[in-house]
Amino acid sequence: MPSYAVIGGSRGIGLEFVRQLSSNPENTVFVTVRNRNSSTYLAELVAQSGHQNIHVLEADVVDHRALKAAAEEVVKATGGSLDVLINNAARTEAHNAFKGLLDYEDEDASDAEFLESFKINVLGFVHSVNTFLPLLRKGSAKKIVLIGSQGGERDFVWEARMPNMTAYSTTKAAAHMVMAKYAVLLEKEGFVVTSLCPGIVDVTTTASSECGSFTLAHIRGRIELIANAVLLDKQIWKKEVEAQQADFRKAVPDFKFEPQSPEGSVTTLLRTIAALDSSECGKFLSHGEQVAAQNQGKS
């Protein structure tokens, strides 16, 4: 019975991971959320599931003690093993999402956003891997997947001339480096550690009521790509989103803004995860690269 832990699965891409994985009665799915009571979409999914194979664990990634308690629950359910860890938790806070290095009110505000983003996007990943690693070592698949972002890739930021989203992009870049460090550490143990980009994803259906769903397309040489869904207040950020899209179109004339559904994105991601082997260890795979590989029959 394959076992999966989805870190951050109360809505959006994480919730879709839980939905698709739990649809197979052979799978055991563990999902962490910051607050069980407010995770209404996940609660509905659990109630509607006929397989009783979803285990909800309350743990914030910034709280390593809570994660250890969650891991103990996994041990009780599986006997001490875990096959696949999917780290989906990330900070995409609306008020600061589009701010550049010179856009904060003052240095204190800049420091606060960078530090909070680092705690969630970087240390949260470290805490998750360190906590579940003993279980993963006893699992059969030995796969660790970071849901990454092209916004954290230097080539994209330069080619798209993207000066904003600084806290998010900087900490995502750091998370990609952490992924590479784990890949180096664990490769000889038979692990595959990688970062996967989900593509442009419309998560409106499970977004909080005050937010709309916007995603920023990313490029790598040519348009292909994508970053994590970024929830932004429609009234505050509409102009900024349109301006960012205009910049992308200037850099890449054939730019297309075509968000996909969470179902489509996660279907691609899960096919990639199933096909991962040692050749992908330590790599960042864009959405376009994943789709191309699947079209060629690799996946």
Automatic annotation (TrEMBL):
It comes from the Eukaryota. The keyword Repeat does not apply. The keyword NADP applies. Keywords: NADP. GO terms for molecular function: oxidoreductase activity. This is Ketoreductase (KR) domain-containing protein. SUPFAM superfamilies: NAD(P)-binding Rossmann-fold domains (SSF51735). It holds the Pfam family adh_short. Belongs to the short-chain dehydrogenases/reductases (SDR) family. GO terms for cellular component: cytoplasm.
